[in-house]
Design a protein that fits this description.
The chain is an alpha+beta fold. The protein has three helices and seven strands, in the order H-E-E-H-E-E-E-E-E-H.
Length: 153
């Protein structure tokens, strides 16, 4: 059994979901927002554009085309306001997402991600709303979380 198949077997992965939660040592851990911003940004994550004062998502984009594949780490404000670097955040369970959006509907070069690069065009209908998550994406997500977990310990 190759490394990918072995990892998927351990996870109990049967493939094909639009979203899959992944276990991580990050879940339940608390950090100051300033630290977490710097750490996750330094590892290729960006803050999702739809943050609220009580929660937000950090996204690692694996690819934008033909699918929008992302590892998303939810965070919840435990004290302070999200826009303050000293606020305390608790990480939720990370998950993988896959969307297949239509391209070429707008003259803007990268209309899918809108102004500022982190916003998904929420009004655009997906080409394939049931685009399955591949085994390779699951493995990439697990390996990225393992690397993040090691760096935090």
């Amino acid at each position: 059994m190759n490394k990918e198949a072995n990892l998927l077997s351990i996870l109990g992965w049967t493939g094909g979901f639009l979203m899959i939660e992944l276990s991580s040592a990050l879940e339940g851990k608390r950090f100051e927002k300033g630290f977490l911003d710097g750490f996750l940004n330094g590892n290729g994550f960006t803050l999702g554009g739809g943050w609220e004062y009580d929660h937000a998502y950090y996204d690692y984009i694996f690819q934008k085309e033909p699918y929008y594949d992302v590892l998303r780490i939810p965070v919840f404000v435990k004290s302070g306001n999200f826009d303050q670097p000293s606020s305390k955040l608790e990480c939720g369970r990370p998950f993988l997402l896959r969307h297949c959006y239509q391209y070429g509907l707008d003259d803007e070069k990268d209309a899918l991600f809108g102004i500022g690069g982190g916003l998904l065009n929420q009004f655009q209908k997906p080409i394939d709303k049931d685009a399955p998550i591949s085994d390779k994406l699951v493995v990439k997500g697990v390996e990225l979380l393992e690397r993040i977990d090691r760096q935090l310990h």
